[in-house]
Amino acid sequence: MKLRNFLYLNTNIVEEYISAIEGYTYDEESQAITSSSENSVNAGLGLKAVSAGGAHNGKQSEEIKRSVKISDAAKFDKIYTYLQSGDEEEKLKYYEFLSEDIYNALRRDDFIEVLVTARFSKTKELIDGVKKISDLVTQVQGITDQKFLGKKESEAINGFSALGKMKSGKEISCVFNFDDRKYPLVAYLDENYFRCEQDNFIGQSYMLCKIIRKIPKGQHVKIDEIFDDIKKLPLNHDQRRKILKNMDNPDIIKDIVKGPAMIVVPVAVYQ
Fold first, then answer.
1. What's the pTM?
2. What is the pLDDT of residues 63-81, one digit of tens each?
3. Which of 141, 151, 179, 196 is the most exposed place for a label (fewest CB within 10 A)?
4. Residue 185, C-beta contacts closer than 8 angstroms, at least 6 positions apart
């Protein structure tokens, strides 16, 4: 059994997979523990069945019942063990990099375990950075009673704060790269399933994930498009041409992942 420190664990997916594997899901189970003790009785010389100096052992047992909670880590380990138990073709594969042959052989719905380095989208990185600066300036201004930001800087911070509120509660876009930065993995994480502070999430870790879609060479995916909701409106051709013109992200937060790449659903990220 591997011991893991989980940075992200989608317990909803874990519960669904456990239910599919075992036919049911549960949070607790009963255990019966039997404890025994031995009493030794020395036999006398007058007993025929036992020679002089012999002994007779009497055993007493007591059964103790207890209810134990099944941990999320134990449930994940059941899924991991199950994925490793198939035949060689279907068995869970581990990769520290991908080659062209490996990439071409991977298919939708395949599970893979990878060693990758995570980064959030450029939009999130900028919003988080601006928020930290804003909080720091507010604290310093409170201590020194001096104003450090002008009108334009305050407006910019307020704009990014508003953008941050728009993104709050939505899935967090994340790109996972191998050391050679080839065949990146794009994922969308649910904030509810982080097991660490998001600042500590960034860095190298292992990930168990399911492949949703492959992005072939010559195609790309745009990360965290600000106007994505507007682009999804049911517009006719003329309206779309007028409204959606130049509605891509500004260069400072433009984030494009080029193929060959993959979109995946992370089950867990761990160290």
1. 0.75
2. 676 677 889 999 999 999 9
3. 151
4. 114, 116, 175, 176, 177, 207, 209, 261, 262, 263, 264
